[in-house]
Amino acid sequence: MAFNATAMPKLYDEMYPTTDLGSLSFLEQQWVHWYVMIGNPIIATGLMSFLLHEIVYFGRSIPWIIIDNMPYFRQWKLQPKKIPTAAEQWECTKTVLFSHFTIELPLIWLFHPTAEALGMSTYQVPFPSLKTMAPQVFLFFFFEDFFHFLAHQALHTGPLYKHIHKIHHKYSAPFGLAAEYAHPAEVFILGAGTILGPLIYCYFTANLHIVTVYLWIVLRLFQAVDAHSGYDFPWSLHNIVPFWSGAEHHDFHHMAFTNNFSTSFRWWDRIFGTDDKYREYRARVKAAKKAMKNASKEDVKKMEEDLMNQVEAEGIKAEAEAEARGMGAGKTVKVQ
After folding, report:
1. What biological-process GO terms show up in the record (predicted)?
2. How far apart are alpha carbons 173 and 100 in whole angstroms?
3. What is the pTM of this model?
């Protein structure tokens, strides 16, 4: 449905005095319609931002809920013995919604004035081209990944782990909905890495549209939910792009408690050696499979299960030590 500018001519003239609607794409016309219809850019941006997050997060989680209930996909389940129950999914949903409404919703109304103060385009049209947005989104991925790498390790220290991050580690075999199953303080801390990148970029360049930020957030939500899905398919992105993290990388973190602190990429964990236990585990699995090439599928599965149980037992011990001694499990990066 095209936008009818005569419906609210005053608001349209105030917000888009030189805009030719006929030159805009369908999505750009709907964008104009949204802001004029709401009548207040702060409310329009805040409401759109919140709805976008909820629709994408839960919308991306639904396919994983369906997959979890289809035995056919167990062959690609990283921890096939641990399938989330309906009760666990519902408990997770309630906790996630609590964080969204107590942390995200109150703060989201500050986004528009903050963005505009830094020079970000919000209600303006036309949208930037994909050629413009692509490098910006990559920079946001890069910034968030390093921010998360450092902050995540901090959350594994005694007080922060015991009182905040422990909630997220309730499930040693994560599932899609559990991506944001966390203490509200953790949602705020790690969420800062998602939004600070665009704000800092805009501060220095004054060349950023909120549509680019929304594209980044959609991709980041997909990454977070998929990394917690617990499935590693032959077509999973890390099998195509080796430095991509993915579920296979992050699932080990939940199983072993330590290692693999980054989100999107593997390089920081490799550079700083915080993937040593993970690489050792993968090497042991590979060597055992090679030695059992003539064994039955049942024996191979038993071998993999035994190795996973051993890693999880070591993780439980590491978690207890982190709480008791107030020290992070595994290696910690010292930033000069």
Report:
1. lipid biosynthetic process
2. 23
3. 0.91
The DSSP letter of residue 127 is: P
- Give the pLDDT of residue 183: 93
Give yes or no for a contact between 202 and 218, defined as CB atoms under 8 angstroms apart. no
What are the residue ranges spanned by the domains of the chain? 40-232
DSSP type of residue 266 = S
Residue 206 zone, left/alpha/beta (φ > 0; ψ -120 to 50; rest): left
> Taking Cα atoms as reference points, which of 87, 96, 103 lies closest to residue 61?
96
The residue among 316, 10, 12 whose CA lies nearest residue 172 is 316
Q: Is the distance from CB of 149 to CB of 142 less than 8 angstroms?
A: no
**What percent helix, strand, coil does the chain show, rounded to 5?**
70, 0, 30
**pLDDT, tens digit, 9 for 90 and up, residues 257-294:** 989 999 999 999 999 999 999 999 999 999 988 888 88
What is the arithmetic mean of pLDDT over 5-26?
A: 78
3-state secondary structure 279-293: HHHHHHHHHHHHHCC
The rounded distance, in Å, linking the Cα atoms of 215 and 155 is 28
Give phi and psi for 304, each to the nearest 5. -65, -40
CA distance 272 to 257: 17
Over residues 79-92, the pLDDT tens digits come to 999 999 999 999 99
Q: What is the DSSP string of 133-191?
A: HHHHHHHHHHHHHHHHHHHHHHTTSHHHHHHTGGGGGG-SS--GGGGG-S-HHHHHHHH
pLDDT, one tens digit per residue, over 112-157 is 999 999 999 999 999 999 999 999 999 999 999 999 999 999 999 8
